[in-house]
Design brief:
- With about 180 residues, the protein is α/β, with parallel strands linked by helices.
- It has one domain: Hexapeptide repeat proteins (UDP N-Acetylglucosamine Acyltransferase, domain 1, 3 Solenoid).
- About 25% of the residues lie in helices and about 30% in strands.
- The protein has two helices and 19 strands.
- The protein starts with a helix and ends with a strand.
- About 10% of the residues have low confidence.
Length: about 180
């Protein structure tokens, strides 16, 4: 029994040595190529989530979904790392448009984001609000009101911005925070 354990231990050490050599010789020097592979794998994994994905779309790490949001990504658009998308509506992201890291989108109806739109990190876009009538009982059970959000072409939304329900941002606009 001790001999089998010893042989198994040597085999595991040898296997780890071989994997380490393969990593150092082949994978690490070509890390840019493997980044492309990881992007493709994320695209395949999230393919069931999207109704349309254009060419060369970027999906970041730890993109979280809650609900049944319908997503349409046009060519060269991107959703970066740690973005949260919640709701039951539909998101249309135009060509060359990006959503920055740690942004949150809450979508219960349609949200249209035009072409060449840059949404910076930590931005929040919400198309709903709680109905707040203090006389009708607890606020928690009074429901929500929703309106579409429309963001035109060639728009830059700065970091930490909040876009609320019913907003219509025209073409060639810059939105700043604070």
């Amino acid at each position: 029994m001790k001999l089998i354990s010893h042989i198994l231990h040597i085999t595991i050490i040898g296997f780890n040595f071989v994997i380490g050599r393969i990593y150092r010789k082949f994978i690490r020097p070509r890390s840019a190529r493997f980044i492309e592979v990881s992007r493709i794998l994320r695209a395949l994994f999230f393919f069931w989530r999207f109704d349309f994905i254009g060419i060369n779309c970027h999906l970041g790490r730890k993109v979280r979904f809650a609900g049944t949001v319908k997503l349409f990504l046009d060519d060269y658009s991107g959703i970066f790392n740690n973005v949260t998308i919640v709701g039951t509506g539909s998101l249309h992201l135009g060509k060359n448009s990006t959503i920055g890291d740690y942004s949150t989108l809450i979508i219960y109806v349609d949200m249209n984001i035009g072409n060449n739109v840059m949404i910076a990190a930590n931005s929040t876009i919400v198309d709903s609000d709680h109905i707040g009538n203090l006389k009708d009982g607890p606020l928690k059970f009074q429901g929500i009101s929703v309106e579409n959000i429309l963001i035109g072409d060639d728009v830059w939304i700065g970091s930490n911005c909040s876009i609320l329900k019913g907003s219509e941002i025209g073409d060639h606009s810059i939105i700043g925070a604070n």
